[in-house]
Amino acid sequence: FSTFGGDxxxxxxxxxxxxxxYTPDMSAAEVDDSIARALQVWARVTPLRFSxxxxxxxxxxxxxxxxxxxxxxxxxxxxxxxxxxxxxAPGLGGDAHFDDDETFTFRSNxxxxxxxxxxxxxxxxxxLSHSDDPGALMYPVYSYRNPDTFxxxxxxxxxxxxLYGPNPDVDPREPEPTAPTTPDACxxxxxxxxxxxxxxEMLFFKDSFFWRSYPQSNTPQQTLITNFWPDAPVNIDAxxxxxxxxxxxxxxxxxxxxxxxxxxxxxxxxxxSSFGLPQSVKKVDAVLYDQASGKTxxxxxxxxYSYDEARKTMDQGxxxxxxxxxxxxxxxxTAAFQYRGFSYVYSGPYMFEYSLRSGRLFRVxxxxxxxxx
Amino acid sequence: xxxxxxxxxxxxxxxxxYLKKFFNLTEESNSVVRRGISPLTRKLADMQKFFxxxxxxxxxxxxxxxxxxxxxxxxxxxxxx
Lengths: 373, 81
Known about the structure:
The structure holds 2 protein chains of 2 kinds. By secondary structure, chain A is of the alpha+beta class. Chain A is 13% helix and 31% strand. In chain A, strands 2-1-3-5-4 form a 5-stranded mixed sheet, covered by helices on one side. In chain A, strands 12, 13, 14, 15 and 16 form a 5-stranded antiparallel sheet that branches. In chain A, strands 17, 18, 19, 20 and 21 form a 5-stranded antiparallel sheet that branches. In chain A, helix 1 packs across helix 2. Chain A is elongated. The two termini of chain A are 20 Å apart. By secondary structure, chain B is mainly α. Chain B has 3 helices and 1 strand. Chain B has helices at 9-22, 39-50, 61-67, and one strand spanning 71-72. The longest helix of chain B has 14 residues, at 9-22.
């Protein structure tokens, strides 16, 4: 997190806010509700309390504007800049302005969710600057999140409490629901949810995030899964790149999603039984596509199945036990992918490097072999 | 090497205005080249570092894509104001 510094914070706990005008995109009641809930996000974790006034000058004046709107920072039309807000101070300080050339929504991702944009802007109104944690609310780039299930990220809580301290009304013995944190590529104990290639890049999935690693880059880029694939599930079980379909497939529970670039392919999500997996298989732990044979190996528990991508049928003689083919792999498979002819099968924080041809195990490596920290 | 897509003229001016708005690239600073690195290159690298991108100091496709994502209008670096 970061703050504006120079002790730019309110020196009082009770703040007023006033909604000066409305956007035509939503009903007034929806705007009122979005604004009130967005302020409540911060009130819940600090001593700050907000009350609405309907005339005069409030600490936080809220308005919808287009292009130039008398503060010296004109908006830019649809998309691009969505809103801005000013650090705590008299007058313009604390005020939040929303670009009315945007389409704001109450909860749909057909536009920008006003609650999410407002909660971010009120972070500025209270003294927070931007965070470089892609999972934090104060990250500068907008990402859709369901407002009904939104919980403030640990980084944001640390930031706002560095200015105002915790909420005195919360009994420390009744801790808040655990604030989400962003997985750390340097955490050697981290167990990845899934790993896949995609057009020469490597993708490492964990919780709501994934890292993209390009061959020529030394630092993988971390971002929210839904930033790239808004229709994708999070906390996935497995993933692989289908060379036949030129698609990325993500597995979660009994369902599988297929993406052409950023778009969900028609007819998806499907059931995993569309691979010919028996009903007894409730989820897939890992999937690996073998370039040489054109087979897709689907791992479930201590077994794996072989699916022929060209014939679109499950191969006979499966399932087989994992350790029948993958020498020495007696623990649960958590992720798998193939890269430059080698097959990498993850079990917990370890990665086993195999030749599928011979079944020979070459090396046991750690996560950070590919996912550099 | 992977041919870097030709970045159109307007993308460069878009990138320059982005860096002015969010990473405090100023006209003055944009004229002084220190140790052979132009301020534009340095600010680009700052932006790439902030967003966890591959730090090249050049306007590649991923950097441009990040600049075009919808975002907040408050700068990403402290600007005395």
